[in-house]
Amino acid sequence: MFVIKKDISLKPYNTFGLDVGAKYFAKANTVEKVLYAINFASYNKLSVYVIGGGSNIIVTRDIEGVVVNPSIQGIQLQEEDVNFMTFRVGAGVAWDKFVEFAVNNNLGGVENLSGIPGYVGAAPIQNIGAYGVEAKDTIFKVEGIELATRKFVELNNAECSFGYRDSIFKKELKGKIIITHVWFKLPTKPSFNLEYGNLLDEISQYGGVNLQNIRKAVVSIRKHKLPDPTIIGNAGSFFKNPVVGPDAYIHLKKIYPDIPAFKISDDYYKIPAGWLIEKAGWKGKRIGSCGVHERQALVLVNYGGAKGSDILNLASSIQTSVKELFGIELEMEVNVI
Ligand SMILES: Cc1cc2nc3c(=O)[nH]c(=O)nc-3n(C[C@H](O)[C@H](O)[C@H](O)COP(=O)(O)OP(=O)(O)OC[C@H]3O[C@@H](n4cnc5c(N)ncnc54)[C@H](O)[C@@H]3O)c2cc1C
Which residue from 125, 153, 154 has its CB within 8 A of the most atoms of ligand 1, so it is best to mutate? Predict the structure, then answer.
């Protein structure tokens, strides 16, 4: 029998370690159980919230509705030819387990995304990305259940409207679909993406360039760079890197000659949000129980006992400082529930 738990703490279910409650919590490891939880919410006139691995959320208060945790497992081969293998992956598969599976089977496309926390079902939400690669590069389609109609839906890659840390699931379909499976089309003869940061230097320590060594290098760099949420609560990068036009970039460069930027097209430059936050004096600052990490200005941390609202207040102060100093609006990457 499928049991929906009542009055639980969500502390183990979010990497910020926020101690907030959920009236109902449904760990649903099949599509039928996800549907059951949706029907239960509808029958009791309650709202539905979705939490996967909880590594990209801030919960600001107790949730009075039904929290669905889609924990559907399974990596099933669907199609194969000489160039690609296509898999249907359950929303509850740990993202890094899927990457490990791909690398162990000599399939490319996701090795640079090694070590990202969370579940496969959340990968399309913000189109996870790292080291010059994004989930959209390999996502073939997304399957889910529409909350309003309880109908099964499928969106192909184009229909997901993927962008930089963005997709239709953060816009028009925000809070409207529970993703149950994601299909990935992985190349059997991958071309490697090694241009980002010090990836090549790190790989050379492990020997030649191959999928296994890229994975090892990415995991090792991430371990040194990012605070471990099991030790100190955090949700990785808190803000998106802002994108500005050439006029704004030239103007900023005159005032701050050392400002870093990546040209992403003739019309746009991406500025590292961490640099802006550090320059605004926030790196390592602590306000009560939360603060800005001492080595990674882009990561906000919970030293223990912080509330979601404390972290949001800190985020808002940082946004104000950065706006005043650089005229740039920092947009949050983390999802507020
Ligand atoms: C240390 C650390 C490092 C990180 N590094 C990176 C990085 O390099 N690149 C990157 O892109 N991200 C990174 N992240 C952010 C995070 O890991 C990703 O965004 C991840 O995809 C979130 O997965 P999750 O299962 O934890 O999602 P959750 O945090 O549980 O949910 C995130 C959002 O997706 C929704 N959601 C989750 N699952 C579903 C579903 N099945 N159906 C519908 N909606 C759903 C939730 O409602 C919520 O709005 C990092 C986080 C941490 C803590």
Answer: 125
Using a cut of 0.90, tell me whether the model's pTM lies above it: yes
Please state the atom number of ligand 1 nearest to the C-alpha of residue 91.
Answer: 41
Q: CA-to-CA distance for 173 and 180, rounded, in angstroms?
A: 15
pLDDT tens digits, residue range 204-233?
999 999 999 999 999 999 999 999 999 999
What are the structural domains, with CATH classification, of the chain? 5-70 (3.30.43.10), 75-225 (3.30.465.10), 233-336 (3.90.78.10)
Q: pLDDT of 20-70, one tens digit each?
A: 999 999 999 999 999 999 999 999 999 999 999 999 999 999 999 999 999
Tokens representing 293 are 């990490």
Active site residues: 165, 237, 333
How far is Cα 245 from Cα 239, in angstroms, rounded to an integer? 19
Pairing of strands 84-90, 129-130: unpaired
Distance in angstroms (rounded) separating the CA atoms of residues 192 and 112: 9
CA atoms within 13 A on the CB side of 18: 28
